[in-house]
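Can't paste images in this forum, so I'm doing it all in text. The chain is below; anyone willing to post the predicted structure tokens underneath?
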Amino acid sequence: MSARNDVPPDTLGVDLREDGVAVEYLDGREAFYRGVPETVPGSVRTAPGTDAHVLVTDETETRGVLVYVNDLKTHDDILAETGVGRFVLDQGEETVLFPGVRAAVEAHRVDVSVDFTVTDGRVFVFEEDELGERSYEVVPESEGD
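Text version of the structure:
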């Protein structure tokens, strides 16, 4: 497996649909995350070894930033062309993905937590592996009750 670098994200188009979330890449292609995201209060922890994609929308919910966490498959040039960012974290390491949104890696799981006093938009976490896709929307603790 070749080394991969952190890649800064660009702002992308976002379309929140009844059947999922669409993200329009800078090159005009679209990624579609199927299904209505499950709401979870405060944070999401992915299953071990899954691909984790984090989308943070702006307050209009029509623009956002998409970042892959620990993706080692996608070449840097492809990410730059699409506008998708990437953070590569070692075990036990954490970083700020966006103001108010942190990611940490522990036991091959990605933990995404949100401080809603800082983040204006909505935060989605998409988890994928060969068995399927799961999608979550992280909401404030008070909304998870």
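The longest strand covers residues 132-139. The longest helix spans residues 76-82.
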